[in-house]
Amino acid sequence: MKAPDVSHSVHTYNYFEYVTPNFRIRHERDLQELSGNLANATSGNAYSWIVKGIVVKELVANADHILDVGCGFGRNLAQLPQAIGIDITLPFLKTAHNYVPNHLIQADAYYLPFRDGEFDAVIMTEVIEHIDDQHQVIAEVARVLKRGGMFIISAPNRNISRFARIPGHVHELTYREISQLLVSEGFEILERKGSTIPYVPAGSSIVWLDSNRLFFFTWKLLNRLLSPFINLKWDLVVITRLKN
Description:
Blueprint: H1 28-35, H2 44-60, E1 66-69, E2 83-87, H3 90-97, E3 103-106, E4 119-125, H4 134-144, E5 145-156, H5 158-161, H6 175-184, E6 187-194, H7 213-226, E7 235-242
Parallel strand pairs: 1-2, 1-4, 2-3, 4-5
Antiparallel strand pairs: 5-7, 6-7
Helix pairs in contact: 1-2
């Protein structure tokens, strides 16, 4: 196997905006996300991440061997004790080690250090938009996933997120584009979901508004009223299965 070239793997941001130098989570919203409890959320950002985590947990709860590609500081791992987490970013992995008991590996998503067909399910949450060669990464997921195994991928919906200019995002996708990418690598689309209606992203200059009590209360109310009727949500969550 070709040795990983980590220099081109992902485009991202200053990790220490999110974690402290002693590898603790810096922001309250991120601690809330680890809890997996919507009642703990005090911002749209945290609420939306928890929604995605709940969707993922429900879909893979019965899988025995799960891989979380780009696990970050452990948002999904906190709810999935049977999952292995990989990330190329050592500060995130060191932080995750302080919060979750899962097995953690520093690895490049272009070259996953696992055998063919090793996993029952793979999850990839908010990673693909940071990747240059998206086909190669999805092909690696297909390689390590069992035939008939489930792959859940979530990513910003470019129809909305393109207006936010989020640091580190190389190529955001529409639902049509992400579906074409997955099908081209041997996946069958089972279902499309979303997270929530748009919130103020963490990288925005007005992110403080996201945690304003009145704004957050109004935003949650609108989510309950509108989410059942609109597909235009901040994040796409696509549930797929690797064809036999």
